[in-house]
TrEMBL record:
<dbReference type="GO" id="GO:0006383">
    <property type="term" value="P:transcription by RNA polymerase III"/>
</dbReference>
<feature type="domain" description="Transcription factor TFIIIC triple barrel">
    <location>
        <begin position="36"/>
        <end position="134"/>
    </location>
</feature>
<feature type="compositionally biased region" description="Polar residues">
    <location>
        <begin position="1"/>
        <end position="25"/>
    </location>
</feature>
<dbReference type="InterPro" id="IPR019481">
    <property type="entry name" value="TFIIIC_triple_barrel"/>
</dbReference>
<dbReference type="GO" id="GO:0000127">
    <property type="term" value="C:transcription factor TFIIIC complex"/>
</dbReference>
<dbReference type="InterPro" id="IPR042771">
    <property type="entry name" value="GTF3C6-like"/>
</dbReference>
<protein>
    <recommendedName>
        <fullName>Transcription factor TFIIIC triple barrel domain-containing protein</fullName>
    </recommendedName>
</protein>
<feature type="region of interest" description="Disordered">
    <location>
        <begin position="1"/>
        <end position="35"/>
    </location>
</feature>
<dbReference type="Pfam" id="PF10419">
    <property type="entry name" value="TFIIIC_sub6"/>
</dbReference>
Length: 138
């Protein structure tokens, strides 16, 4: 299973993660799908600056379908809770191969349009995660 995250939005601590699950063992019926599953994750708590700037940070999900899944982002740990969104979250991705030519001008202001976006998916739920600190067992 590989998990990839996009850049976090400013000051909100939100990241959207894509979880790709590929079957490794034919007898493992839980991971026989070759599809992707998008998970809208909202992280709250104290972040280290390098986590916000590093799109290639290692992310681990433990018990993603449980009542309180655990998310490890680099060396920080978060405990989650599934929640319904207020309305629908619409997730876009940067469109690859966009060319800032004259055909790509804003029709109103006649200036080049920035990054083009394309629809990726929609969601009415998200995983709310709060930072937790682990203590050694005595």
């Amino acid at each position: 299973m590989s998990v990839h995250g996009n850049n976090p939005s400013q000051n909100t601590g939100e990241k959207t993660f894509t979880k790709s699950s590929n079957s490794v063992n034919e007898s493992d019926s839980e991971w026989e799908s070759d599809g992707e599953e998008l998970i809208h994750v909202e992280l709250t708590g104290i972040f280290q600056d390098e986590l916000k700037r590093n799109p290639d940070i290692q992310i681990k999900f433990i018990g993603i379908e449980s009542e309180h899944p655990i998310v490890q982002l680099g060396n920080q740990v978060f405990e989650g809770e599934h929640s319904q969104t207020l309305g629908t979250s619409v997730i876009f991705t940067k469109k690859s191969g966009t060319d800032p030519t004259s055909a790509n001008l804003d029709p109103v202001f006649q200036r080049p349009i920035g990054d083009s976006l394309e629809y990726l998916c929609r969601s009415d739920s998200k995983l709310l995660c709060k930072r937790v600190f682990l203590n050694a067992k005595s």
